[in-house]
Amino acid sequence: MATVTDQPQRRAPRPRADAVRNRERIVAAAVELIVEHGTELPLDEVARRAGVGNATLYRNFKDRGELMRHVVLTVTDRISAHAEQGLAAVEADEADSFGALRTFVHAAADERIGALCPILHATFEHAHPDVVAARDRLTVAVEGLIARARATGQLRSDVGVGDLMVALSQLTRPLPGTGCMDFDRFVHRHLQLFLDGLMTPARSELPGEAATLEALRQE
Amino acid sequence: MATVTDQPQRRAPRPRADAVRNRERIVAAAVELIVEHGTELPLDEVARRAGVGNATLYRNFKDRGELMRHVVLTVTDRISAHAEQGLAAVEADEADSFGALRTFVHAAADERIGALCPILHATFEHAHPDVVAARDRLTVAVEGLIARARATGQLRSDVGVGDLMVALSQLTRPLPGTGCMDFDRFVHRHLQLFLDGLMTPARSELPGEAATLEALRQE
Amino acid sequence: MATVTDQPQRRAPRPRADAVRNRERIVAAAVELIVEHGTELPLDEVARRAGVGNATLYRNFKDRGELMRHVVLTVTDRISAHAEQGLAAVEADEADSFGALRTFVHAAADERIGALCPILHATFEHAHPDVVAARDRLTVAVEGLIARARATGQLRSDVGVGDLMVALSQLTRPLPGTGCMDFDRFVHRHLQLFLDGLMTPARSELPGEAATLEALRQE
Amino acid sequence: MATVTDQPQRRAPRPRADAVRNRERIVAAAVELIVEHGTELPLDEVARRAGVGNATLYRNFKDRGELMRHVVLTVTDRISAHAEQGLAAVEADEADSFGALRTFVHAAADERIGALCPILHATFEHAHPDVVAARDRLTVAVEGLIARARATGQLRSDVGVGDLMVALSQLTRPLPGTGCMDFDRFVHRHLQLFLDGLMTPARSELPGEAATLEALRQE
DNA sequence: AATGAATGAGTATTCATTCAT
DNA sequence: CATGAATGAATACTCATTCAT
């Protein structure tokens, strides 16, 4: 039915079928390599891993910063989707709100949120519109989860979204030079322990003030 | 002429007075820079910060690996001292055992345990005798603290020393390019939350198995 | 059906209508960019300025050298036309012969004789038949102008066609990175001064020997 | 007599005897290569020509721009010295003032003033204090020569220092890819002709306005 | 025939490490 | 001993040219 109207419109997007694939493969390879070797990885290595020439990488991403930004956007979007999904479940089904938070945290870890550490760099373009938008989307969704968990009295009231996201990023931050496999065994334990610490009743008083993701913008 | 008789007595202690100072300044500068800029920093920068020529650095430390090892040893030793001191206090005075653990964790953060991130690299010589010895010393002391806290029923029984140390290292791991100052504001909050999660009664079941520091030797 | 009979007639002129246009636009873009940014400009830039894909450029011009050659030929031909026109005027109308030389020099500058700077490169194919032919045509015409100006006693007798053409090229040679607009303000002054120096009576003795365009073939 | 006071002060400058030599050799090689191959020359080639490793070049000159700046400063200073020497001769000895200008122009050509074309680039750091100072020094000296030549009625009054310097630079601008040897044969002829055009009585009217070196600052 | 994409070879620059003073 | 300088081996990035659509 709708296909009739679709056909004439397809001319523009088509010729890039393989180019789009290359782009995706480059970002995927970059995520992998950031997880394995940290953010200082050689871009030629990314290109090789993606199975393309190095210049193809540069055709798609003007420089290292742009590639990093796309990695961040890609991973952030995936994680936002998890958060929104969890939030929808909680709102729709009256599900266990803290459980939704737990589920989200572990899912974010599996999505390699630790690879987002570049976003925490002072040198990273925190002000780029796309980055701001992605961060805002994630913040909104996670704040929703947090508000729900707080509303049901399961989450202590003195923690902010930044506390959760920064600790989550740090605890899952990849170990350079490793396949990460061994490390994964421990990470979910640490997350679980941290989540336990977020529950009510609060067992200690927190120093400082609640962090926000915006506050990480350096300078 | 009378001074001649003095000279032989000076042999042992004197010749290294400033050399020792140089060594210490180099390690101190390295710790600072690792905390500020991560482990990939230029060694010339370390030398400059230490106020010595770069060749002096290489005279004292054969290569980057050796310098990193000494950084790790220095920081580990300081942290071990804190752990042992806490343990002694607990054993002597029947003090609050979980409180001792808390005190130790925050002290380790202030001692820049985050500078131990080189130990997280696969390329680091985890098997070097000095490193093994330092790690063992720290492990013993922290295990003592853990045993005490467990004995008084305040620490949940399903966490190992590795869980504590790895999570502690990760949560305090510096963000490259950061003056770290802003970050410090949050770190103690995260540690406090994590510590809350370590208390009894356990609020969740932990996946995987307890980590040990030895297990961090990758590959 | 009747239209079928029309088709055979179209063979010769039609198939190249837009192709010819493309060729011209590419050369024009190249001239512009050489004037603005020197000869080291990226060919992709030329294609973009011409509004065609880069591959189209390569379909028309095998490589950089061939494009440069066509630029040189195009510009040279235009300048030859000016010279021949000036010569015709002088011969027909007994006009002011040195004035014709002046007019030619400024016209050549406006035709962007500075874009001939590729001809100044040692790597340029000075011996290519088309280049030789174009250069000979220009040389003949300019020599005619010079002969006339000399015959009327206005042009000093110790300067050759090469002196004129090389100095003219150099004085109008574009400065890379410049929009050239500002530079244009000065160029005609310098040309005027140089032309004044060509007039009789000679005010100095010239060192070396008269240059010829052929002598620019380096090595 | 003065040597007594000199001896104790010599300690500082000594240890760099060879380093200073390297620096000079790098600049000299850069001038040579700019003359031969233009400003886009590979820096590795400069290092090789200077007989040092490429990193030595970068130790001495942070980047391409800094090397270029020092080339410009070096050449400009040498040329300024010529101009000042000529000016001193004219002022002291009542020598032929236009002859002094001629002598200066040919000397500047031999000092490769044509290699200064980078100074005319829009991308060059025209505002750098050292460049400004060097340009001012040169401008002052040449303006002195011009004023003298004008005062004696030999130089036409409608040309500015910028007219002279830009035309001089352009006429002596090296031909990329050549040993320049052949070209040198012609350059002094063109300069001589241009200089003739500068003499009184003026043989034509000049369009536009007198250029200044400052006006070449792009944008 | 025309295009956008892909590629490899080249160039600038950085940094760990060694050498000469 | 301590130092500044020198070096070669990376790595990021550009561009002429070729390929697939």
Question: How would you describe this protein?
Answer:
The structure is a homotetramer of 219-residue chains. Chain A has helices spanning 3-9, 17-37, 43-50, 54-60, 64-93, 97-110, 117-120, 129-151, 161-171, 181-198. Chain A is mostly helical and 219 residues long. The first copy, chain A, has a domain at 64-216: Tetracycline Repressor, domain 2, CATH 1.10.357.10. At the A-B interface, helix 9 and helix 10 of A face helix 7 and helix 8 of B. Chain D binds a DNA duplex (21 and 21 nucleotides) through residues 15-19, 22, 42-44, 52-56, 58-60, 62-64.
Output the helix-strand order of chain A: HHHHHHHHHH
C-alpha geometry of chain A: elongated
CATH fold-level label of the domain at 64-216 in chain A: Tetracycline Repressor, domain 2
Going by CATH, the homologous superfamily of the domain at 64-216 in chain A would be Tetracycline Repressor, domain 2
Largest interface: A-B, 50 and 47 residues
Number of strands of chain A: 0
GO molecular function (chains A, B, C, D): DNA-binding transcription factor activity; transcription cis-regulatory region binding
Keywords (chains A, B, C, D): DNA-binding, Transcription, Transcription regulation
Domain HTH tetR-type (chains A, B, C, D): 20-79
InterPro entries (chains A, B, C, D): Homeodomain-like_sf, HTH-type_TetR-like_transc_reg, HTH_TetR, Tet_transcr_reg_TetR-rel_C_sf, TetR_SbtR-like_C
